Amino acid sequence: MTAGDSATTAPTGRRVVIVDDQQLVRAGLRALVEGAADLTVVAEAGDGAAAVQAVRATRPDVVLMDIRMPVMDGIEATRTIVGERPEVAVIVLTTFDLDEYVFASIRAGASGFLLKDGDAGQLRQAIRAAADGDAAMSASSLRRLMDEFAATAEPPPGLVALAGTLTAREREVLEAVAAGLTNREVAARLTIGEATAKTHLSNLLLKLGCRDRAQLVVLAYEAGVVRPGRLGDLPRQISQ
Predict the structure, then answer these.
(1) Residue 93 domain-assigned?
(2) What is the pLDDT of residue 143?
(3) Is residue 232 part of a domain?
(4) Domain span at residue 177?
(5) Are residues 50 and 97 in the same domain?
(6) Among residues 212, 35, 22, which one has the least CA distance to residue 131?
(7) CATH code of 52's domain
(8) Percentage helix, strand, coil for the chain under 3-state DSSP, each rounded to 5
(9) Residue 104 belongs to some domain of the structure
């Protein structure tokens, strides 16, 4: 960790690393996070390289990651952290939700993104969701992001071929997940049991090599399984 970074000993609950190149921002985020009894900040870092070292040292559940930083940006740091420790969830912090850097971060393995001007309740809820293996973001924001950046080019042939290995039912489940539906809503839409919907989701994650629902949504768009303007209004949160 860089000079000025800090760690907490004997943490309890969900463990969080905060990464931002502005010390005042880190201090504000720490105060918001530690306002909840079940969340503990175990380290801070001022750039992406220091973030990687902090994660190696503290093994957190969640990383709150800024994107634009010196030494190593948040995209590369996310890719490195997720590559080394896939169990660690990264939440990208951004000023604008329609941002090509946010899209790149999701592709690099981030579990979601939050606007920096969000409130404490949203931040804490997102940390808990990410720590539990869920996607931590607004489903409507993710849809707009995909519409803006994921569907502007021809789908990569490899992704198209991979999507072609899905069964008809798996494709239906993927389309429903891309629409932001919960497992219960997927089950109701497809007239199947919720346990069956969960099984299909687990199979999709394994077959497509995705970490979570956020990655499934990105792949669904990039492979052409869903297209802009073809999804209805989405729930506020992508969740289990």
Answers:
(1) yes
(2) 62
(3) no
(4) 147-222
(5) yes
(6) 212
(7) 3.40.50.2300
(8) 50, 15, 40
(9) yes
Name the pTM for this structure. Answer: 0.72
Dist. CA 228–CA 16, nearest whole Å: 35
181: amino acid identity, one letter? L
Q: For strand 39-45 and strand 112-115, is the pairing parallel, antiparallel, or unpaired? A: unpaired
Distance CA 32, CA 229 (A): 36
Distance (Å, whole) CA 48 – CA 54? 10
Residues 86 and 43 in one domain: yes
118 secondary structure, DSSP code: -
What is residue 45's three-state secondary structure?
strand
pLDDT averages per 10-residue partition of the chain, 240 residues: 45 85 93 92 96 96 93 94 92 76 82 82 87 67 64 62 84 84 86 91 87 79 69 39
Q: Helix, strand, or coil here: 83?
A: helix
Is the domain of 152 the same as that of 118? no
In a domain, 71, yes or no: yes
Task: Give the whole-angstrom CA distance, residue 93 versus residue 237.
Answer: 17
| Rounded Cα distance, 216 and 204, in Å | 8
SS3 assignment, position 33: helix
